[in-house]
Amino acid sequence: MNLPAFGLGTFRLKDQVVIDSVRNGLELGYRVIDTAQIYGNEAQVGQAIADSGVARDELFITTKIWVDNLSKDKLIPSLRESLSKLRTDRVDLTLIHWPSPGDAVSVHEFMTALADAKTQGLTRAIGVSNFNIDLMQRAIDVVGVDAIATNQVELHPYLQNRKLAEFASSQGIALTSYMTLAYGKVLSDPVIVEIARKHDATPAQVALAWAMQLGYAVIPSSTKRENLASNLLATSLRLSDDDMARIATLDRGERLTDPDSLAPAWD
Asked: Residue 91: in which H helix or E strand, if any?
């Protein structure tokens, strides 16, 4: 499957805030919505989609299986619960949100269960999130490289994750960049600001365009309609080779998401 390049993230958005964000996004033309079991907002996302009147076939919905639900007896029932909350009979992409802490559930067990969910028609595609190279290889060994649509990872100008990106590219697996704006840190970066000024664009548009130009999918979130509209314009921004080279120099290995209880040994 071809992974959509641009979508709407819902991390940290709850209750009416997420309903408004998804509603505004859909009104503005977003058609890719990214959520997760642990976000606690699947029901609100489902409500916003139902209220929007946008046909299900026009949408690409992603959710993620939380670590408590990775075992073979829990994964599919938990996905069915997610589908119920999202008011749909299938999602377009289901990801393993984080690898099982301490390998409590083996990669073989949860990837086999995830592949079974696809066979049952509960999800059109499957993938992983927050996997290092070793875990990606283990997942490939279970389901085959063609079955893995993406690895969704923290990736932004300050954490360019080149080693992982090179491995994913060598396998033909797409990367999805989350936190592409580094919690807003890159928006005041002098290099990004200067490139934005040159293109009559916003710093956010530049960071998002940079990631997409490298071949990554992006899923920025916002609670403000004007920012949602502005971010969408990143899809038509083309950066020069010089712009891309300058942003490449910003990499400093600055990881912002590294929970001790969940994180693998990063590459």
From this structure: strand 91-96
